[in-house]
Design goal:
Layout: H1 3-16, H2 19-28, H3 40-57, E1 61-65, E2 75-80, E3 88-94, E4 115-117, E5 120-122, H4 126-147, E6 153-159, H5 169-175, H6 177-180, E7 184-187, E8 199-201, E9 206-215, E10 221-222, H7 223-226, H8 233-242, H9 263-270, H10 292-297, E11 301-309, E12 318-319, E13 322-331, H11 340-350, E14 357-366, H12 376-389, E15 394-396, H13 405-411, E16 416-418, E17 434-436, H14 437-457
Parallel strand pairs: 3-6, 3-7, 7-16, 8-15
Antiparallel strand pairs: 1-2, 2-6, 4-5, 5-17, 9-13, 9-14, 10-12, 11-13
Bound molecules: zinc ion.
Zinc ion is lined by residues 128, 163, 428-429.
Length: 462
């Protein structure tokens, strides 16, 4: 039997014997909340008691690291170097979860107890991200079992702070470039576009967060005595916002309109299934000439996340002295990240809004990344996943949301292949989070085949 088929048989047995489910249950049982101090002791435990033993047994050497940012979760790097001449894959995952929200789960469910109901396995962190790195690690294990070796080199990086915005991850990658040096990132997070077919995405939109502030004077002033005499900061702010987009949200700042929606990217996006969200979308919102997929994956979007003037809970008859909006631009490659706020400043000045201040958030900006959908690694992974699962993958140049992908794409300069193992309805970041057994089984086959193909054929020619 060919190695590939042997490995696929091993991983099928791993799933069908119930081992997959019991290993996932053991991972979910660890309350690794990174957003709540009660989770702190479990962050290290996840690495030392769950990940390190699993990887050691697979012939990896493991090393634990404190986060370069004091107080943030630890990191684990495991590696199995078989021959420096072989290609090296970096696998990334995060073992931390968002807060449990234990009082909001449906009756019969409990966040840290994996509960089976039909095709679903419920538990906090089941989808985000424990099942995802478990699948990738066990796919490699099946290949080792099948042929006594991987046939390539692998490095596994597990962080424990992703749900807090991956503090220290970028610095860690910068400080350990040599340790993490690889030929490709193959990692999993987030949902597939549809539950039945694999998805490959290669980057993410960036985000820039900032405040718009109109601060005209100390205190509020009686609207009877001063109405008509004192400028109203909320009205000025509203007009300033209205010059950033038109009434349907189409961006009017010239530099905020990306130049990267090429005919090829449009072609790639055109074959994707519609955006599945479980709620009615607004076809009359956003860039009118674009399809829904192009709006969220191929274009920039501006949002007002919050805005306030005066005291909304207890309004008084007075003209407020100030108004403030917290805003965000989600942007794709083809937008100069260093020019986002300067371009807005120029645009506001041009429209006469010199009283509107642009204040960058200290939560900062994250860059946009995207790999060419025709990159050899994308073609390689696409063909392999189709062969193992019998289903052609959906190719997404980038997620609409964000990931710390710049750490890998920019700091480590790797081609980045993300193969998500969850689906849109998984209740990630909400009560009743779950994974699908059928999807997990297919994903195990897909990843095992992908690693087997890499072992057999080597890295694709760039
Ligand atoms: Zn998450």
């Amino acid at each position: 039997m060919a190695i590939r088929d042997t490995a696929l048989a091993k991983i099928t047995e791993y799933f069908d014997s119930g081992r997959f489910q019991s290993e996932l249950a053991a991972l979910v049982a660890r309350p690794t909340e990174s957003q709540d101090p009660r989770g702190t002791p479990h962050l290290m435990g996840y690495l030392t008691e769950a990940m390190a033993p699993m990887l050691t047994e697979m012939g990896f050497t493991t090393e634990l690291f404190d986060n370069p940012q004091p107080g943030a979760g630890p990191l684990l790097v495991a590696q199995r170097i078989e021959d420096p001449a072989l290609p090296t894959v970096l696998v990334y995952g995060h073992g931390d979860v968002i807060r449990a929200q234990e009082d909001q789960w449906r009756e019969g469910l409990s966040p840290f107890e994996l509960t089976e109901e039909g095709d679903r396995l419920y538990g906090r962190g089941s989808a985000d991200n424990k099942v995802q790195h478990l699948i990738n690690i066990r796919a490699m294990a099946a290949l080792i079992e099948a042929q006594g070796k991987l046939g390539f080199n692998a490095k596994v990086l597990i962080e424990m702070g992703e749900e807090n915005g991956s503090p220290g991850l970028k610095q860690f990658c910068e400080e350990h470039k040599e340790l993490l040096a690889s030929d490709v990132l193959i990692a999993s997070d987030g949902p597939r576009l549809s539950p039945e077919a694999p998805t490959i995405f290669t980057g993410s939109r960036g985000g820039s967060l900032f405040d718009l502030r109109v601060d005209l004077r100390e205190g509020a002033h009686h609207s009877g005595n001063f109405g008509g005499l004192l400028a109203d900061p909320a009205i000025i702010l509203a007009h300033a916002l209205a010059c950033i987009t038109d009434e349907r949200g189409q961006i009017a700042v010239p530099e905020w309109r990306p130049d990267s929606l090429t005919p090829r990217i449009r072609e790639v996006l055109s074959v994707l299934p519609g955006v599945e969200s479980g709620m009615a979308l607004d076809p009359d919102w956003g860039e009118e000439s674009l399809t829904m997929s192009e709006r969220v994956f191929g274009w920039n979007s501006f949002a007002v996340l919050a805005m306030v003037s005066g005291v909304p809970e207890a309004p008084v008859n007075a003209i407020s002295g100030w108004a403030r909006a917290t805003c965000q631009l989600r942007f794709v490659v083809g937008t100069d990240p260093d020019d986002i706020l300067p371009a807005l400043r120029r645009h506001l000045d041009k429209h006469g809004f010199d009283k509107v201040e642009v204040v960058p958030s200290d939560r900062g900006a994250f860059p946009a990344t995207r790999l060419d959908p025709d990159h050899p690694w994308v073609r390689f992974a696409t063909a392999s996943l189709e062969r193992s699962t019998g289903t052609a993958p959906h190719i997404l140049p980038n997620l609409g949301g964000s990931l710390p992908n710049d750490c890998f794409a920019e700091v480590l300069a790797l081609p980045t292949i993300w193969v998500p193992h969850s689906y849109a309805g998984c209740n990630q970041h909400a009560p009743n989070e779950h994974v699908l057994k059928s999807l997990s089984r297919q994903a195990l086959l897909g990843m095992t085949g992908l690693f087997a193909d890499l072992a057999e054929h080597g890295a694709p020619e760039a």
